[in-house]
């Protein structure tokens, strides 16, 4: 099946769907409301599980109704939540999401308990090799600790540097596979051209880099050059979590032994 360990956020998403996204200071009425499980880490864990991997989630939720619901939803997708801690020190993270008719979105996040993930349980990497999947809704110390443990255990490391912030040197030293989108790649390098940004990041990490391009697919940059991978053609309903789905499915493919280009 392949083993995947995800370190990241577990949120509850409150989603309003409207005809168009509001401009600054503007109210757009007439929308519909739905509530979903979310958070980059939880999204990635569910995607990896649905892609056939055996998945463990490392995170933190509040000791509240939202946290209990989030854990139940993860368990319903066969994600092991043994290492998702419940705390009374903060509420479960929430995201407020506005989605337009064309699938575009605006998202504001209150991380809550996600900021309290302070230690990585290295026992999750025991046994067969697999893939460690990290994203930046968790804090740098736990991400670095997890990556160093993965290196010691000979696991592959996939890092989704989102929301973007400077890359910790300790994390770079673990030579992770970076998977930013084109905007995050620009933030990390100052380079507006996605291909040049990918090359700069590949030189920085010494490992392959994937830059996602939305409907244009993705760029795979390695020592062999840059390869463009086309996206399937779909009618977009809601782009929330699209990058998380890619990262989770990619991690599952790598854990199952697929070559990188095939997994992507």
Topology, pairings included?
Elements: E1 3-7, E2 11-17, E3 32-38, H1 40-50, E4 54-62, H2 65-76, E5 79-87, E6 93-99, E7 105-110, E8 130-135, H3 140-152, E9 156-160, H4 169-172, E10 177-178, H5 182-189, H6 194-205, E11 209-212, E12 218-222, E13 225-229, H7 242-255, H8 260-263
Parallel strand pairs: 1-4, 1-8, 2-6, 4-5, 8-9, 9-10
Antiparallel strand pairs: 2-3, 6-7, 11-12, 12-13
Please give a structural write-up.
With 264 residues, the chain is α/β, with parallel strands linked by helices. It is built from eight helices and 13 strands. It has helices at residues 40-50, 65-76, 140-152, 169-172, 182-189, 194-205, 242-255, 260-263, and strands at 3-7, 11-17, 32-38, 54-62, 79-87, 93-99, 105-110, 130-135, 156-160, 177-178, 209-212, 218-222, 225-229. The strands form three sheets. A six-stranded parallel β-sheet has the order 5-4-1-8-9-10, with helices on both faces. A four-stranded mixed β-sheet has the order 3-2-6-7. Strand 8, helix 3 (140-152) and strand 9 (156-160) form a beta-alpha-beta unit. Helix 5 (182-189) packs across helix 6. The longest helix has 14 residues, at 242-255. The protein is globular.
Using only CA atoms, what is the Rg?
18 Å
Compressed to H and E, one letter per element, the order equals EEEHEHEEEEHEHEHHEEEHH
Question: How far from one another are the termini?
Answer: 17 Å
Mean pLDDT: 95
Described by strand count, sense and barrel closure, the largest sheet is: 6 strands, parallel
Tell me the overall shape: globular
How large is the share of residues in beta strands? 25-35%
Structural class: alpha/beta
Secondary structure: number of strands: 13
Question: Which residues form runs of ≥5 with pLDDT under 50?
Answer: none
Number of helical stretches of at least 4 residues: 8
Give the proportion of residues in helices: 25-40%
In spatial order, strands of the major sheet run 5-4-1-8-9-10
